[in-house]
Write a structure and sequence with these properties.
Elements lengths: L7 E6 L10 H10 L2 E6 L7 H10 L3 E5 L13 H9 L5 E10 L6 H18 L3 E6 L2 H17 L7 E3 L6 H9 L3 E4 L9 H9 L5 E3 L21 H12 L3 H16 L10
Length: 275
C-alpha cells in the first residue's frame, strides 16, 4: 500500500475559470490524491465573486479572496473600494484581499494601479485580512508603496498590512525587501524552470516560517508538466523542487508551508469528510 502523500496547501488558484468548467470534479480528485488539503482561490475582478462562491460550495477545502488585479484597473471606479470591502465581509470563506499589486510589464496605467493598490491595502489592514500581491517588473515601486503604507499606518496607531508576494520571481535582494515588511513569499511552477536561477536563489533564502507554495493555475505549469494546463495537484512538483533547493525532505517542506498557509490565511480546520 502506497503511503499517503504529505498534506499541502495550494495558496493561489483560479479554478473558477472556464478552462476548468468541464472537468473540475476530476481535477478535484487529482488534487486530493496529491495531498492538497486546502486551496486559496485568488480573485482577478469582483465579478468573479459568485463563481468562486459556487466552487467553494462544491469543494469545502476551498477558501477565496476578493480584489482587483492590477491589469484590470480600467474597471476601478468610485464604488470599487466599497464593493470589495462589502464582499469581503459577506462570506466567512473570504480569507484575503486580492490579488492586487503592480504590473509594469504589460500596462501603462501606473498611477491607477497605485490608487487601486493603496485602497485594497487599506481594506485588508482594516479588516485584518492578508493581502495577495501580484508584482511584475515593479519590485522597487511595490516596496516603496508598502513601506509608505506601513509607516503611515504605524504613525496613526493603526494595524499594518500582512500578506504574500505570490508567484514570486524577484531577486534575493528584492525578496528581502518584502520579508522586511513582514510579508510571506510564495513560489509557483516558475521555480522549477531550468533558467530560473534568481527565483531558485530566492527560494533558498526565505525563512522557513515565511515560505508558501502555489500553482497559480491554470497558468505556469511546473516541470514536468510544463506546457499543459496547470492544476492544483501539480503544487506537489513545486513543493518538491523547493524542498530540493533548500536541502530538506518533501515531508518537512510540506508540513512547514501548510502550517504557514493556515497561519497567514487563518484557515479553519476541515471536517474529516471534506478531505
Amino acid at each position: 500500500m502506497q503511503p499517503a502523500p504529505p498534506l499541502l496547501v495550494d495558496t493561489h488558484v483560479h479554478i473558477a475559470f472556464d478552462r476548468f468548467q468541464e472537468d473540475l470534479e476530476a481535477v478535484a480528485v487529482r488534487w486530493r490524491e496529491a495531498g492538497v488539503s486546502r486551496l486559496v482561490h485568488s480573485c482577478v475582478e469582483p465579478s468573479e465573486f459568485e463563481a468562486m462562491r459556487r466552487v467553494a460550495d462544491r469543494f469545502p477545502e476551498v477558501s477565496f479572496a476578493i480584489g482587483l488585479h492590477p491589469l484590470d484597473v480600467d474597471q476601478w471606479g468610485e464604488s470599487s473600494a466599497a464593493q470589495i470591502r462589502q464582499l469581503a465581509q459577506s462570506d466567512p470563506r473570504v480569507v484575503a484581499i486580492g490579488e492586487t499589486g503592480l504590473d509594469f510589464f504589460k500596462s501603462d496605467s501606473v498611477e491607477l494601479q497605485k490608487i487601486a493598490l493603496r485602497a485594497q491595502l487599506e481594506i485588508a489592514a482594516d479588516l485584518g485580512l492578508p493581502v495577495i500581491i501580484h508584482c511584475r517588473d515593479a519590485a522597487t515601486a511595490m516596496a516603496d508603496e508598502l513601506a509608505q503604507f506601513q509607516q503611515s499606518r504605524r504613525a496613526s496607531g493603526q494595524s499594518v498590512a500582512t500578506g504574500v508576494m505570490h508567484c514570486w520571481g524577484g531577486t534575493p535582494e528584492e525578496t528581502q525587501w518584502f520579508l522586511d515588511q513582514g510579508f510571506f513569499i510564495s513560489f509557483s511552477g516558475t521555480v522549477t524552470f531550468k533558467k530560473a536561477e534568481q527565483i531558485q536563489a530566492s527560494a533558498r533564502m526565505v525563512p522557513s516560517d515565511r515560505l508558501l507554495v502555489e500553482t497559480d493555475c491554470p497558468f505556469l505549469a511546473p516541470v514536468p508538466k510544463r506546457g499543459k494546463r496547470n492544476e492544483p495537484a501539480f503544487v506537489a512538483h513545486v513543493a518538491a523542487q523547493v524542498a530540493s533547493l533548500r536541502g530538506v525532505s518533501l515531508e518537512e517542506l510540506a508540513q512547514q508551508t501548510t502550517q504557514n498557509a493556515f497561519d497567514l490565511f487563518n484557515l479553519p480546520a476541515l471536517e474529516p469528510s471534506a478531505t
